[in-house]
Amino acid sequence: MWNATATAAAMAGCSCSSPFSTPSLFSHPNSNSNSNSNSTGFSSLFNLPSKASSSPSSTQFHSFCLHRSHSLLRPIAAAVSVESPPLENKKLLLEVKDLTAVIAESHQKILSGVNLKFYEGEVHAIMGKNGSGKSTFSKVLVGHPDYEVTGGTVTFKGQDLLEMDPEERSLSGIFMGFQSPVEIPGVSNADFLNMAYNARQRKLGLPELGPIEFFSHVYSKLEMVNMEMDFLNRSVNEGFSGGERKRNEILQLAVLGADLAILDEIDSGLDIDALQDVAKAVNGLLTLKNSVLMITHYQRLLEYIKPAHIHIMENGRIVKSGDETLASVLEKEGYKAISSV
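The line above is the sequence of ABC transporter domain-containing protein; the predicted structure tokens follow.
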């Protein structure tokens, strides 16, 4: 579980003064709230299909709001199609040196000296067997308290990432797309995205968007991930299929933005159509300034989102790096062909 301090800090970004108190903007048109506010909710403004639902428990909301604290980010610029500049002209975005980490509770060692460099505009993929440390690495980068860093350094845009709280990491430009996105009954996608977007705007000292302005912002993003407008009125991930949940993660990335998007097995549970939709959206968000780190088991994702660098993780460290041909070797010969010496 996240500790109380981290939870409070993340909830502050959502302006929640109680276990579940959101601005009147987010009240459901069918709720029995005693609020005297005349604010109009998203659903009633756009006549989206509505259904009454109970408010989530404080545990559910704290958990999801904290997870999404990693998503209160700066906007992504429009995608460009120009060639990536030479390496000497790129800025170093993320540098990981000799990173080691253990499970906080048991002190079991998971990461055993990870070394990686990410430059702006690059797509990287990490592959490896189950238990090799791939997902742990991603969680350490976003500051998950289940893991304790025991050595090494991580520098993000010239700053010490390990000294930042999780919400500070998100505000600095890191997004985490979860392998198993959680659901939160009673909070619509529209209300949640608008709340998260405005929380980020407040943190950055930028104007907040009301429902109408935010609708204009989010509408084009729905087309990117091939989602219907009624998804905005559905509770976050509640009753969603695996493909819908992953599309919803990418919708959040598109709306909220990132300098570095970490996608943890975004392809798991997707049929071919959903995979193509997700990949198309991610490709559409790539610019010369932002980067993507994909964690995956399968080559099929890499056929749609082309990485410049593929890294093989084994026993908590990177044992081999190469280009996309490395994935082809894995597909044909398995990990035994690339075992550490």
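Note on the example: The CA atoms of residues 147 and 218 lie 34 Å apart. Residues 1-84 have pLDDT under 50 and may be disordered.
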